[in-house]
Write a structure and sequence with these properties.
- The structure is a homotrimer.
- Chain A is of the alpha+beta class.
- Helix content of chain A is 22%, strand content 26%.
- Chain A folds into 2 domains: 236 residues, Naphthalene 1,2-dioxygenase Alpha Subunit, Chain A, domain 1; 116 residues, Rieske Iron-sulfur Protein, CATH 2.102.10.10.
- The first copy, chain A, contains 9 helices and 16 strands.
- Chain A has a 7-stranded antiparallel beta sheet, with no helix packed on it. In chain A, strands 11-16-15-14-13-12 form a 6-stranded antiparallel beta sheet.
- Chains in contact: A-B, A-C, B-C.
- The interface between A and B is medium-sized, with 32 and 29 residues.
Amino acid sequence: MTTTRTSGGATTLPRHSYTSPEIFERERQSIFRSRWICVGLAADIPEPGNYMLAEVAGDNLIVVRDRTGAIRAFHNVCRHRGTRLCENSSGMFGKHIVCPYHAWAYDLDGRLAAAPIMDEVEGFERADYPLHAAASALWEGLIFINLSPEPEPFESAFAPVIGKFTAWGLDRLAPAHRTEYEVAANWKLMVQNYSECYHCPSLHPALNKLTPFRNSGNDLTEGAILGGPMLLSSASESMTMDGRLCASTFGHLHGEQRKLVHYYVFFPSMFLSLMPDYAMVHRVIPRDFRRSTIVCQWLFDPETMRRPDFDATRAVEFWDMTNRQDWHICEQSQLGIESSAYTPGPYANLESMIAAVDREYLRALGRP
Amino acid sequence: MTTTRTSGGATTLPRHSYTSPEIFERERQSIFRSRWICVGLAADIPEPGNYMLAEVAGDNLIVVRDRTGAIRAFHNVCRHRGTRLCENSSGMFGKHIVCPYHAWAYDLDGRLAAAPIMDEVEGFERADYPLHAAASALWEGLIFINLSPEPEPFESAFAPVIGKFTAWGLDRLAPAHRTEYEVAANWKLMVQNYSECYHCPSLHPALNKLTPFRNSGNDLTEGAILGGPMLLSSASESMTMDGRLCASTFGHLHGEQRKLVHYYVFFPSMFLSLMPDYAMVHRVIPRDFRRSTIVCQWLFDPETMRRPDFDATRAVEFWDMTNRQDWHICEQSQLGIESSAYTPGPYANLESMIAAVDREYLRALGRP
Amino acid sequence: MTTTRTSGGATTLPRHSYTSPEIFERERQSIFRSRWICVGLAADIPEPGNYMLAEVAGDNLIVVRDRTGAIRAFHNVCRHRGTRLCENSSGMFGKHIVCPYHAWAYDLDGRLAAAPIMDEVEGFERADYPLHAAASALWEGLIFINLSPEPEPFESAFAPVIGKFTAWGLDRLAPAHRTEYEVAANWKLMVQNYSECYHCPSLHPALNKLTPFRNSGNDLTEGAILGGPMLLSSASESMTMDGRLCASTFGHLHGEQRKLVHYYVFFPSMFLSLMPDYAMVHRVIPRDFRRSTIVCQWLFDPETMRRPDFDATRAVEFWDMTNRQDWHICEQSQLGIESSAYTPGPYANLESMIAAVDREYLRALGRP
């Protein structure tokens, strides 16, 4: 499956892309407040009343399943004095979302249901003070939020992949494990790191045995969603510590698909990894220009997970090891790029997808 | 004692008032370097030579009782190389304040008394290098400092309250307890929090039993000193864990005064709370736009404190619990207000005093 | 040896010299990227392949002894994606310096020796991607780096001292001990502190006994290298806890030289202290306008160090005690100078060398 790729003479981005607080702020506006951002899994909030908190572009949001079962997103800010309504990172609401300061109470659809003694204030109307809402969308079991007042239609933004992953039945999967990492590096370094396997022989010898680095090919090569399949070596069945499956192969995969893993970047900040027997979702949450949080979740078929002999350890350990190798080298890259001596360097042909990520990044910032 | 109050359509301040380092710097200039700032109690430095350090607007000051018994304030900065003269937060000076670097020595009135080998420097005159002084004033046992080169006369700034609290004999009281809190919130949020009891039912159920939130009335409603009395419930005697007195009622209180507590904000950063049997002073020390230190002291009659059965625990525990509830909700407000989704919200009529605080704040910043 | 010195009416620098991030950035450009900066000892990397990392003006550099025995300095930045090549603060390279990310490999003279699969990239030439080098120089066993693209010739910058210290045989000495200190003070405060002994009676009573503070005289009084000898008291032999020698007197010292210690500031950031029996080197590494790291090394004759009874403890303890007294007072000066009340103060005549340091500093910033 070796493909012919070229980096077309592209080079790495200039230093200030990774070191400027002003550019970081512009990224928040032009990218993280404008694009659809993955904030978690529908399976994380399965029941009406279930909620989780999410951070997008520095804003804290309540993501909640309402009484009708629909998923909604609200800014975690009381309309009275601005207090955070909710402190716990996840949980279950009762009938209302109640502000702990003065007991203003909101329905799960965001309407202000009660505001003690405010009826004494002339002209006050509860209807004027619903929670500030954000657009949300559900795709393949993943929840996306868009902070823009006029969000691009989700179907248009995700057109390249709608229907593409049906065989994996992603919307049925559930998280078996979750790990959070704090990384001292700009968010783009992790996106770029995920976008090539040129580093696999030196950085991931174990991974490189399961999927030799030349075995990669991209089927989405331009735009906000980029990536493609990678062929397992003949002796390997999946990405695990021993190369063996960790669960049954997904039932609807057949033929060559059972020997492929798929890696996609959903620009700006989500990575979707599909193994024959499980899936993995990375979300990068930029904190500042040189600090990021990464949430990684391992998804399996719930039926498989109910089996007494189910054990995700070999899959979790494999990627946790690989993740740590990647985050560490990203931190070393951040340090090097911060040097006054850094100058943009040439991409290898196997880094053509980074060049595509960089192009999408510059387009999003409005620079062609 | 329920009074008719109205917030007059006022709303909370805009976000940047709580999140902008530039506005914080302007506040330091226009408020904390211009107003009389409470830095502690005369009872904290009872004897000549006693000193304590104070921070005002980021400057460190030595507050000292001089040989004549008068209280003086000096910047903690040697006139030679700028070194801090004094490190300990409180203590007793000998004859001089001696710089540890080159042994320049100052009298307690600030004059440079000795500067080794400086007589060799042509033109050097000790008289040219006294400590930089700040204006100070004493009122009801409280020490105030004013960093302005031309301070507003204290008597004019404090006219509304001079003589007002004579019945409590505040200048005779002594601190029985002191607690310092670090709070991750803008200083104004604590001032606003102290200025209303609308939050008492939800945040302070124990306090709300002793003084139901509707029992409040303000007798100073505009200007830099704001507040008024609150009526204890019929079953309560004071603000303590069990609602019983913690000491004898102050002797000069009579009639209804024995059933009242009084709460006053001294803008910008001091709160004076008067119970029938003790007093409490809060001082808010802004560190940056989102960090503050709060010093809380509990004051009692020294004669009472000498009694073998004196025990301030029920008073200290009651307010320590209440303080922590307040600081925590202020931190949650800071976080919510930092959100891009925050918009000013409407004040309840019971929050009319916050509206007055906000007006004073905007006047101090020179914005009508 | 008391000399007549005058501070000529000079005063300390203005506050912003110690408190402004912008000035700190200007210092990095005009001083730390323009002058020859000491980064360590040749004896720290004795063998070909030995390296150590150094920080100059916020940049990280690899200082390595190449195959020919010459010392070279390279920015620790891979020419491919900018990753730091080397993490350990010191060690031994094999044949190449290999980037851990994609295995680009550099010779010890900086040439790119191998870059896997880059031959597939059209127009890629390894010769175009050597490591970014910095100028380096060796003098009396000390390694200096200059980040300027057109460095002032070392021989011209160091003309005042070339040949001056031959009697001590510094290039033969080896480090017996090394201590690193983190100091919360601007780097200039440590330079100024090292430049006068006016503070010795108050701050260093033990040191002042060995070398009474009046016993100092400077033989280099203008320019980037400043300082001179100080006479030991009649009862003292060296600067140690008991005033006795810690090793044999350097063989080439004779007559009065055996009763002298010498202290020189090499502007901006190195101090050279010569005792009759050992030497000491301080290097100040500015981190930001109020944080510095100081590395202190004690150097002895390697033959002496091989003796079974050799023990540097009395020398190490003496200066470690003195160092800590100095850094602490520098931190107190930083705090005082940050006060809005700080105003420049007059130098004593015994502080004439600080005035010379300040003049050199202002010249370096381009302000006469």
